[in-house]
Specification:
48% of the residues lie in helices and 10% in strands. It has 565 residues and is an alpha/beta fold. An eight-stranded mixed beta sheet has the order 6-13-12-8-9-10-11-7. A five-stranded mixed beta sheet has the order 2-3-1-4-5.
């Protein structure tokens, strides 16, 4: 059972309705996944953040027969796989082709035997959505062309906008800043983030699969690593690499925070504070680093050497194809750096949105209650309409109940009631990475085999003891050489990575954050296991095979080998 799971007695016995628009699983039999979004948004969203996503990231996405491409399932963001699969079905692609395409779009994997419910539509329906699909492709190409310039200008925009927000004295002035400047800029950056993600993953996923067939998983991972070079740092490594350089006196604290202060474990949740708002955070990180110093530059150099060695083996094994393949491999690094830089700068924009919301709360006298309003309701409040405040108490209550639940399964099919699901998981003492409303319950944890299967995240095979953590704030418990097991990782976890022998996560895929950072540092990783945190405990001894995507339980904490399956 998840350590944060509520006791059965604390849960309702009957179906509990959520606020309108907070459970899109009730709209039909669809397959949902949050494998890509769970890293960026690991907690329940506030109403303000959900409305921000609707105005930014989700704006302009195609609906299929009125069904949404993205959904809110009990306060968490999910992607409707059925929409994408239905489009591919109309295009004449078979299930395997659709799965490969979905993996490229979502940067995540789905269980191979998982049925994907399709949304019925005549083949002629494709003609009605084709203009929208073409427009999306054109917009993505335009985004990629202008994105480097937009990202380069974003830090200066951030500084100027923060100053203007601090100086805003009236509600009308604040409302104008949102509609005329902040919202348009945010939409541009959001669009760039999504475009750069597809630009990287749609290129890297099939190339990695081809390389794995030719040279094996280990060399394939080595070849697609090296996104960070001595002259161009990967944004996702900024926290850990900057920390190493700060400890050596190569940069100042101010420079470190200017570069990384906008980041955090929930950097796309507007109500969550950033690292730059916590003066003690950097001191804690430096203290932990001094206790277990690691030469991060040396780790990166070692992985670059491994990539060069893999390139040489490719030339020897595939002399006819090697030159063309290596030219393709050379395009991965700039695409990957663009994706990670855009995510970082979106975090900076979200920090400004947070500053705007806090300023709106201050001018209206409601403080942090502003996060329990939508943006439209906040603008109405700034215009003098205080009626939206009547919703705040009930929304706070729902938010507290949702946050008391454990993280939902990364893959969900059909109608999903998070309260009923948590009650069942708590009562049975087991959980799974997949919830299927049409399938019988999965076996209890004690009946499961002693091997977990996930996605190959970063190649390499190691054995070690588990350190099971729920948040990066527990990082002081992690000892050098332990295997980090957690639900998911994002950029806030990266200072812990150099101490890990390996990383195992419930959520993730070969191009997710944990996998990308682990590959850069040469740390084995298995991601997207689904229920690793439910089955593994601190002190268990594991064998992690990152190339195969397998985690073998060699010994249970304090009890010897696990029971035979």
């Amino acid at each position: 059972m998840h350590p944060n799971a509520p006791k059965p007695s604390a849960l309702p016995d009957e179906h509990t309705n959520l606020p309108a628009g907070w459970n899109d699983s009730l709209k039909g039999d669809f397959l949902w996944t949050n494998s890509n979004f769970g890293e960026a948004m690991p907690e329940v969203m506030t109403p303000f953040t959900w409305s921000l996503l609707q105005q930014g990231a989700l704006a302009g996405w195609i609906q299929f027969r009125g069904q949404p491409t993205f959904g809110n399932l009990g306060g968490r963001l999910y992607f409707n796989v059925s929409v994408l699969a239905s489009i591919f079905h109309l295009m004449g692609r078979d299930r395997q082709q659709a799965l490969e395409a979905i993996e490229g779009v979502l940067h995540s994997s789905l269980p191979e035997d998982m049925p994907i419910p399709l949304i019925p539509a005549p083949r002629s329906y494709l003609l009605s959505i084709l203009p929208g699909l073409v427009a999306m492709q054109i917009r993505q190409m335009q985004d990629i062309w202008g994105l480097p310039r937009l990202l380069a200008a974003n830090p200066a925009w951030h500084r100027a906008m923060r100053q203007r927000l601090d100086q805003a004295q009236t509600a009308a002035e604040l409302a104008r800043l949102w509609s005329q400047e902040l919202r348009p800029h945010m939409k541009k950056v959001w669009s760039g983030v999504l475009s750069s993600a597809n630009y990287y993953s749609n290129y890297c996923t099939p190339l990695r699969q081809k390389l794995a067939r030719l040279v094996g998983e280990d060399d394939a991972d080595a070849l697609i690593s090296g996104l960070s070079s001595p002259s161009e740092t990967l944004a996702s490594l900024g926290l850990v690499l900057g920390l190493s350089r700060l400890a050596r006196g190569q940069i100042t604290r101010q420079a470190y925070l200017e570069q990384n202060g906008h980041r955090g474990p929930q950097e796309f949740e507007v109500s969550a504070p950033r690292l730059g708002e916590d003066p003690a955070w950097l001191e804690r990180q430096l203290a932990e680093f001094e206790q277990a110093p690691v030469d991060v530059d040396a780790m990166l150099a070692q992985q670059r050497a491994a990539s060069q060695a893999a390139s040489q083996r490719l030339r020897e094994r595939q002399p006819r194809q090697a030159a063309a393949l290596l030219r393709q491999v050379a395009q991965i690094a700039p695409r990957g750096r663009l994706r990670e830089a855009s995510r970082s700068e979106l975090g900076r924009v979200t920090w400004i949105v947070r500053a705007w919301a806090l300023r709106a709360g201050a001018l209206s006298g409601i403080g942090k209650d502003v996060f329990f309003l939508s943006i439209a309701e906040t603008l109405a409040l700034l215009g003098g309409d205080r009626s939206p405040l009547t919703h705040v108490p009930a929304r706070r209550q729902v938010d507290a109940r949702l946050r008391a639940l454990p993280p939902y399964p990364p893959v969900i099919r059909g109608r999903f009631d998070p309260f009923q699901w948590a009650q069942t998981a708590a009562a049975s003492g087991s959980s799974s990475g997949v919830y299927d409303a049409s399938a019988p319950p999965l076996p209890a944890a004690s009946d499961k085999p002693a091997t977990l299967r996930g996605a190959p995240g970063s190649a390499g095979c190691v054995e070690g003891r588990v350190r099971r953590l729920d948040s990066p704030e527990q990082g002081d418990l992690l000892q050098a050489g332990e295997i980090l097991v957690t639900a998911l990782t994002n950029v806030a976890w990266t200072p812990l990575f150099p101490r890990c022998a390996a990383v195992v996560t419930d959520v993730g895929a070969p191009l997710s954050h944990a996998a990308v950072v682990a590959r850069e540092l040469g740390i084995p990783a298995v991601v997207g296991c689904g229920d690793a945190t439910a089955r593994l405990h601190t002190g268990d001894r594991l064998r992690v095979d990152g190339g195969a995507g397998l985690v073998a339980i060699l010994e249970l904490a304090g009890s010897g080998p696990p029971p035979a399956p």
